[in-house]
Each structure stands twice: as C-alpha cells, then as structure tokens.
Amino acid sequence: MDTPERNQIGTSISKFEDSPVFSYINNLSPIKPVKSVHITQTFNSLSFSSPPSVFTSPHVSFHKESRFLKGHNFLDSSKSKVSSDDGNKDCTNEQAITNAGHLYNDSNDLRQCTDSAVSIEDASVEAPCEHTEFAIELPQTLKYDCGSPDCHPTPCCDNETVSVLILPGNSASVVAYAQDACENNPTEGEVQLQEISQVEPKAEGAGCDWESLISNDTDLLIFNSPNEPEAFKGLIYKSLDSTPEFYNFPPQLLQSSNNVQNMQIVELVSSSSQRETEDHYQPGAASDQLEVDKTQHNHANIALLADNPNEKMDNEPASTLHRGMRRRCLDFEMAGHQRKNPADGSSSGSCMSQSGKKIADNDKHLLTIKRSGESQRCILPGIGLHLNALAKTSKDYKNVKPETLSSGEQINLSSSSSSLHLPTTSQEHQHPLSISASSERDMDLAQDGLQLAEDGSQASAYLVSEEFNQNSPKKKRRKLEPAGEIEACKRCNCKKSKCLKLYCECFAAGVYCIEPCSCQDCFNKPIHEDTVIATRKQIESRNPLAFAPKVIRSLDSVPEIGEESNKTPASSRHKRGCNCKKSSCLKKYCECYQGGVGCSIGCRCEGCKNAFGRKDGSAPIGIEAEPGEETESCEKSVVDKALQKTKIQNKEVDPDSAFPATPLRFSRQLVPLSFSSKGKPPRSSSFLTTISSSGLYTSQKLGKPTILRSQKFEKPSQSVPDDEVPEILHDNASPIVKTSPNSKRVSSPQCDFGASPSRRSSRKLILQSIPSFPSLTPHH
DNA sequence: GAGTTTGAAACT
DNA sequence: CAGTTTCAAACTC
Fold it and tell me: Which intervals of the chain are annotated as region Disordered (predicted)?
C-alpha cells in the first residue's frame, strides 16, 4: 500500500486504492515504481540481467531486445484485441506501439510524444486466457490530439504517458464481452465487436501463451491472482521517470502470472494530460465499470515505455501511471460471465463501449508510445522484428498502424516502418483472423516483443506489415510510410534462396521479408511460417549460432539504451571472424567491418586493415572504437557513415580513420539494442535485434516461452561474449586512444562502453602525432 | 540499372 | 576439415 507509486500516481491512485484490487495488488506488489532510472537503463538492466531468454541464439544485445519484445507483445496483444476504429484509438495505438518499440529510445519518443501531444487516458484491458477479458477503456479523452477533433490539444506526450496495454487473454472472452455489449448497447457494442472480432481469433490460444511468455520473459510485469476473480493480472507502476520498475516485480508475482489465466496489462502513463482525459472520460459504470473505471482512472501504468524522464517526464508529474486493470476469469466459464457482465446493462454496454474504446485506446497507447518513438523513428532505423515478434507485432501493428497512421505520427515511427506499413487501422479491423493468428504470435511476441520493440522500429514494422498483408489481404497494405522509413525497410533481394537461407538477410535476421524486399519466390513470410521455422531449425541444427548475432559484444557493452548504452565494449567481435582476402576488411564485404567491429584472432582475413581493429591486434584506428561501441544497428549506421567517410577519407587517408564516432551515437539512439544477427547493419534500418531465431520461431508458434528460454539459455555464448572479450576487452577496457590516420584520436570502442560518454568526446580529439597504431593496444 | 567483385553460406 | 559451388550483398561503372 505504501508503495511509492501512490505518491507518484497521485489522485488517480486514490481511487485505485479504494478498490480491493488495489489493496490486493499492493499487498502483492512487489512492484515498485522505479523512479529515476532512465528507461534506457532500465532496459539495459533488464535486458542484461537476463540473458536473451527469448532467443535461442545467443545475442549479446538481445537481452535488451527481449524485453522490448515483450513490450511489443503486450502492445500487440492489446492491439489485436482491440482493433479500434476510432481515429482516437489509432492515436493511442500508435502511441502504444511507439512506446513499446521505443523503450530504449525513450528519450526520443518522449520528445516526440510531447510534440505529438498525444494523451492516453486509460487503458484497461482484460485478457482472458481463459476468460480474461480484455477491456480496454479509453476515455474519450484518450483520443488525444492526434489530430482528431476530439483529441485534446493537450499533448499526451507532454504529460506523457505512455501506456502500454498488454492483453493476453483469449480473444474469445473479449468477443463475448463485446457481444454482450452489443446487446446492451448496440452501437457501441457493434463497434466493440468489430474490434473484438478482430481479436477473437487469436485470443484464446494466445492468451495462455501470453501468460507463459510473459512470465517467461519476465520482463513483463504480468501477474495474476488466480484467486481473485477480478484480480489484477498485473499492474505495473511505473513512473515515466523511472522506467525500470517493470522488472522489479518479484519473481513470485511473475510466476504467479503463469498460473494466471488472464493476462495483464499494463501501462501507462500518465500525465496530467491523461488525467485530463480521464476526467473527460466518464466510465459508463456498471459492474464492469468498476474495473474499467479503475483502469481508466487508475491506470496501471507501466513504465515500459518509460521515456526518458529527462526529456519528457520532467515536465510531467509523471508520477502517474495508469493502472491497467484486468479482470480475471478464473474459469473459462468465467469468461463467459465476464462477457455477460459487460453485457450487463449499461455497464456492459458502457463498459463495452468503453472497453472497446479502451482497447482501442490501448492500442492507441501503444501508438502513443510509438509516437514518442517517432522521434526515434529515424533513430530506430534498425529495429528488427523477429519473425516471432513480427507475427505478433504485425498484427498488433496492424491495429496500431492504422491508428498511428491516422495520427500521422506513425509515419514518423521510423523505421519502424513497420508501423508505417501498418497499413491502416482499417486493416486490423478488417482482419480479425490475422489477429487471431497474431494471438499465437502475440504470445510469442511477448518474448519477442522486446525485440520487436527494438527492432521494431524498422524491421518489426516490416514484418508486421507483411504479416498483415499476408494475413489480411483485405487490409490495405501498409500505408506507405514516410519515405524515411522506407529506407529502414530495405530488405533482401534474394532470387534463388527463397529467403530461406542465411544468404537472405531477412531470414538471417529472423524477420520476415516485407514489401520492401525485392526477393523472388520468397518463402520467408508469415504465410509460410511453418516452412520458415522448419528451415530455421534445420539451419540451427547445423549451426546453433547461425542466427546469433554475428557481432558479439561484450557484456560491458550492455549499454544503457540511452546514451552510451550503445557503447559496445571494446570486446565486441565478430562471431566467427571474417575470411576476407581482397577487401582488406575495409569494405562491407567484411562482416567484421560491416558490423563495426575490429577483426580478431578468429579472423582468417588477409591483409587486414579493418579500421575498427586489425586482426593482428593493432589497435583499430581511431574510428574503430566508436563503431564497435554501437549496437549493431548503430553499427550499421555508423558503419555506413564510416564507410562513407572512409570512402571520402580513405581515398585520401587510411580507411581506418574513416569511421566517425558521431554516427554511432546517432544510430544508437535509434537502435540501441538491436543488432541484426548478421550484424548487417547494412540495411541500416534493420537492426533487428537478433533474437535467437529458434526462440522466435518457437515462440511464435508454440507460444511457449519456456521452450524458447531454454533454447536461449542453451546458447550462452551468444549471450555473452565473454570469451571474446578478454583480449579485445582488455584492450578496449583500457581506454585506448587510437589515433586515426586522419589524426583523430579515437578511444577504443570498449572505452566507450566502459567509459562514460566523456570518452567519446575524447575520441574526437585529434592526435595526428600519434601513430596510427597505438602502442596502446595490448595486442601484439 | 547492369555488371563485377566479394566473401559468406551451402554443398560435396 | 578442405575445397568447390552457390548466393546475394557490396561495389563499380
């Protein structure tokens, strides 16, 4: 009860407190609001803390991603469930999505959000695995400004709130619920139904998976109290400022969540604006209302998206997090009850309507989140969606996209082109089936979700879009997004591999091919999910690390999402090492170079001149350090820049110097976590976090987080490159200053990681006098 | 945009 | 494990 949350939450909480649920939660609540921590940090901590459970393949960076994925999942799930027609919803969805995707990017997102001024009032979701009902309530106000007339000018973002709703549950329950609502309130109910219908298909199966996923993923805050009918499945409080809290949930809770049939939800944010919205919003009432109201008023806020407190939060009281309330249905039958409940008169109707709205809102929240991410868009270029995530996300995205599109912010979502792709909200609505399908995926998504989120920005979007497309032909294909995103969307151009081999960047990255792909006879699509998975498994059977990120970064690298999180430890290396003979490791032909890492002993390259670090151990040329630091995504961006520079500079000077440090940063923000399996940054945008492919797939279909986890765990190596680290790290560890031929001094990437940003700054220092090869390098 | 180069992936 | 082939990205023009 005493939880700090209250303080933060403020008034909203008070209501909440009144509710038994609240008290219950409090009792349980392990959750503690995390305050100060930056979101990015949170992620980091989170992600790092746990190995990339999601992926089989070891990805160092994944940890972070994984969590994001979860977030996505939630979002997705919510989306799926909620397809909202309302433009408002769209907005929310967008936000939510953005949020999810941008956990890392928080700062950016927040900024954007503020700009966008999206406010999400509430989201209450009920997800029933069994019965869980997913009611998302959105206050009318939710509509925030997206441009919809209804929307309040108040910028949600300002208030910031990003709320993410996670809905696990079976869609069925939701549907029923909707139906009830319809009965009660035909108009509202219909709308809801529509939305719900979309969701329905998935829901049932998914719900359970979700839970498991969520629980597994841990990152998610979900927990259910089986006992309580209405028990919250999960509440997450989070102050925007403090992102991290999510993870704070006690394990117990998490576990409990597994048991729980219901899903949880979450989220959100809140800001004064939200509150305002809430105020506007008046819950219909009725039995359900309580829940709804709670949700509305007391939104469970999830810090998931937490934005950088610095940026946005500061403005906002932040404190408030909406609480997501979920009803829980102990029994499937219960679900039916719930359905009835909603149906119950006004309440149901109102609830329904509300719920429906809420759902939509939830999505919106997601969207809103995305918005925040918008800023990120650009940044995010790389978010890669894993197939798993994609599947889910796609669905979710679908929902979201539309909304986002409506808001227009979506477009921004960078790379997330996915969002862009998102065709339109309409699609979502149109394709309930897809949603159902998504449900499974969603489950998986929970795991992958993080990735999605990360990748999400870009890849995910793509994937999603694809899925949507495939799944729902009806749907309007993704609205093209802003041109900017398109870049991120770049994909493969496979002609003979059917995109089922590692030749295919998409496949290798664990994502489905998307429209942007120019591939022929592509099987790497959700439609061929089975094939993809089977193929993937085969490949993994041969090489368990086949889908692991090619560039392994030392744990140190774990950077905070925020700023330096990107910093890759100096130890970062290419998984297998390159075998370059003619490119001197100075071109993207070289995977090491492409990945922004120096060549290591493991490389068999000839005439290595890798600017990031030579095989011989010679210190990488100044530039190196930076690139290494960045995540793959970042790397790509960095690399690209570096390459460009190198091209320019190299012509004159050694390529080594070519890489600029700055780009990395930039990229980082965009895609902090992600790193493509290949490390193919090339695509710039796609940094999908590589999720272990296996994990993804498994998660997708199976929706069994556990399995995935196990898999993931199996591959320790990926998770931590410690092995590699030693040499490199050591080198890096010591802040080595390298001078680029250009005369720039560069600290080794490691330095960046380990070191504070200050180092970076130091990098820029130019030391012409210093020999290109720093004696510093410990290596021979 | 076509053609070439390159090196990873896949195959033997 | 080594050698060869296939493949698609990266690169050049």
Answer: 337-357, 403-435, 709-780
